Amino acid sequence: MKLSPAKKIILIIFLTLVAGYISLPPQFSLFGKLIKRPDLDLKVGRFSLNKSFDLVLGLDLAGGSHLVFEADTSQVPNEKKKTSVEGVADVIERRVNLFGVSEPVVQTSDFEGRQRIIVELPGIKDSKEAIDLIGQTAQLIFVEIPESTESGQLNFTDLTGADLKSADVVFDPTTGKPAVSIEFSDEGSKKFADLTERNVGKSLPILLDESVISAPIVQEKIEGGSAQITGEFSLDEAKNLSIQLNAGSLPVPVKLVEERTVGASLGSQSISKSVKAGLVGLAMVLTFMILAYGRLGVIAAVGLIIFGVLTLALYKLIPIVLTLPGIAGFLLSVGMAVDSNILIFERFKEERKLRRVSDALEVSFGRAWDSIRDANIATLVT
User: Fold this and answer.
1) What pTM does this model have?
2) Of 89, 165, 259, 378, whose CB neighbour count within 10 A is largest?
């Protein structure tokens, strides 16, 4: 169904107004009066949406702690090193989330044979407690659910991550769905056989750092040291579970090798200067377009402002963790967005000499599209 020009304009205005509301700061000054933007609180039947639409700031803007841990993988086989470090990073991320940190960054790094885990905690100034918690070796344990669950207590067993040799993603041959295959050591096999024999038909929770990561139902006594955890897993969920199990089966000690605290004052100054620089740059681009192309330049200027508002709204909706380089990228993308207008308008100058204005505009858009497409593909690939 093709929309008429009038409907397209109405749609653009509607999207711009919605994006403009989302893009507004939590509070702003208008004619000397401080105005607070109301948060979205929508309830329709069972559906509810509560959103503040605040920008999520990265470490360099919000301040916080930057920690670098080095994993000791000397006792881990080469083929297991990558998996073990990923498992440790996953455990660290779970632990970091206990602090309620907004958008923590946990990533792995392999440099000159040294496996490191980089942790950024925006808003955390006193990192001692975080270091103490993060530095612990992952603790994985199998537990039993007692007959009487009134107390809410679980019975811890002697089957732990130390008894687990490996966990891998496989596909169930009967259903074709992703599953997780686990293999125990010789001693672990005996413990697992006894444990499954006692818990046939019951749930057997697996705890990692005292949090349940899986609770499979035991179908029968399992001997031989191999088992399979099945369920309605997606491929990503099965991968995450195998990583978590390996984190407990391959305990990798970590030590702190770097600690930095970033002040929030630097971030506020950076934001202020970036906004001013962005406004000056945008004003220069808009002025150039209007002076060079007249009425067409005014249309391009309006389109550029709409592009900026829509992009900022997407930053808040996704949300994207905004860092100082991210602000630079945002401003650069706004400046680059005007390239398409220049290509079209330059072509229009030539076409209007040969045909009516409406036809010239149509041809200009069509002829410039190849260059616009290629330029954007090149940018995306880069």
Assistant:
1) 0.59
2) 89
